[in-house]
Design goal:
This protein is mostly helical. The protein contains 14 helices and four strands. The protein has a two-stranded antiparallel sheet. A two-stranded antiparallel ribbon has the order 3-4.
Length: 406
């Protein structure tokens, strides 16, 4: 056991947890003022709900002894057998308890990301039921496929350094399913849905960027050169995404916006996530630039086809996660990470095909299961707010609170 590695991963776990309240502020600032508290609560409450799920089911389903390559068994139910001794399968220099709590933070933020797609129109209790079921039936299995010992996608060579597939592609697929099942907000296309507090969103952006160093850097699971590689790539990908989004705004609209800068940064950070520990600085900048362009076009395409993904989860996280996963197959280099692979540019075109298979399997599975969950819960419980409650706003209709008294 290495004390420096243990301290590093514990600190990284704290940074990843910080991302969830950061996301709450990021989303909260972009909705209308009558929905800000309800939107923030949808992220914050998952810290509690998913942590409980992780202790009893999530960790053992994701990382427990393999069952056929698809799921972990329940031998670690309620953390039985999860001790302060290192795990020979996952992190050999830190306590398994530290690995467990670090991975818990990923499980928390992933369903929280989905909430941006159906912002301003979902009832609280059905939302909790969906989030719990989605984590059990989508996040845990996909996590095992890619990061679990014996997972079938890992066995065929699919790589995901810090969550391009496990986090961003799954939440993007779920967001698309949710928007299709639940439909647009009342008045969409006719009523203004302008963000009510962009400074709040910018604060959330800063907290997310800061936390992302733990999200990606900590995924090395050691205070070593791979963590340094991931840390640098994370920053460069984020800054390049921000720059290119603003450039695209200027080229197409002759203006640059703070919301665009924030969106571009998150797009770059999401896209660099699967590749962060496998690429050098120049590749990270190229990937961030691609994110700024392609995610910008995806968000604008969504608007043109009338898809009410309220806070652009599909266009930023879904598209970014898929793009980054494919970029891994192009830009990865064993000179950067000897434990990784070479991509297309370094003589291994086959890795692109492997990454494409991972995208198809994860995206297809996450979309279908998410669609079924949304449909069943909506029919059984009524997931949408009633028209009158939606006009009134979630804060007062669901939580009997108001964010502003004047």
């Amino acid at each position: 056991m290495d004390k420096a590695d243990t301290a590093f991963v514990l600190a990284a776990a704290g940074l990843v947890l910080l991302m969830t309240p950061g996301l709450a502020l990021f989303y909260g600032g972009m909705v209308r003022r009558k929905n800000v508290l309800g939107t923030i609560l949808q992220s914050l409450i998952l810290i509690s709900l998913i942590s409980i799920e992780w202790v009893y089911l999530g960790y053992t389903m994701s990382f427990g002894p393999d069952v056929g390559g698809f799921i972990g068994d329940l031998s670690w139910f309620a953390l039985q057998g999860v001790t302060n001794a290192p795990s020979s399968d996952y992190a050999t220099t830190i306590p398994q308890t530290v690995f467990m709590i670090y991975q818990c933070m990923f499980a928390i933020i992933t369903p929280a990301l989905i909430t941006g797609a159906f912002a301003e129109r979902v009832r609280f209790v059905p939302f909790l039921v969906f989030s719990l079921c989605w984590t059990i039936f989508v996040y845990n299995p996909v996590c095992h496929w890619i990061w679990g010992k014996g997972g079938w996608l890992a066995n065929i060579g699919v790589l995901d350094f810090a969550g391009g597939l496990v986090v961003h592609a799954t939440c993007g697929a779920a967001a698309l399913a949710g928007v299709l099942v639940l439909g647009p907000r009342k008045g969409y296309g006719k009523t203004s849905f302008m963000p009510h507090n962009l400074p709040l969103t910018m604060l959330g952006t800063g907290l997310l960027w800061f936390g992302w160093f733990g999200f990606n850097g900590g995924s090395a699971l050691a205070a070593d050169e791979i963590a340094a590689t991931a840390f640098i790539a994370t920053h460069l990908g984020g800054m390049a995404g921000m720059l290119m989004w603003v450039v695209m705004e200027w080229l197409t609209q002759r203006k640059a916006t703070t919301l665009g800068a924030a969106s571009g940064a998150i797009a770059g950070l999401a896209t660099i996530t699967p590749t962060a520990g496998f690429v050098g600085p120049n590749s990270a900048i190229v990937i961030g630039c691609l994110a700024g362009v392609i995610c910008y076009l995806a968000v604008n395409f969504k608007t043109r086809i009338g898809l009410d993904d309220s806070l652009d989860v599909v266009g930023i996280h879904g598209v970014g996660g898929v793009l980054g996963t494919l970029c891994l197959g192009i830009f990865a280099s064993t000179e950067v990470n000897p434990g990784g692979v070479n991509g297309l540019l370094f003589g291994n075109p086959g890795q692109v095909g492997i990454q494409m298979l991972g995208v198809a399997a994860v995206g297809g599975y996450a979309f279908v299961v998410s669609w079924v969950l949304f449909k069943v819960i909506h029919v059984a419980m009524g997931m949408r707010l009633a028209d009158e409650a939606e006009v009134q706003g979630m804060d007062s209709s669901e939580h009997f609170e108001t964010a502003y008294n004047n």
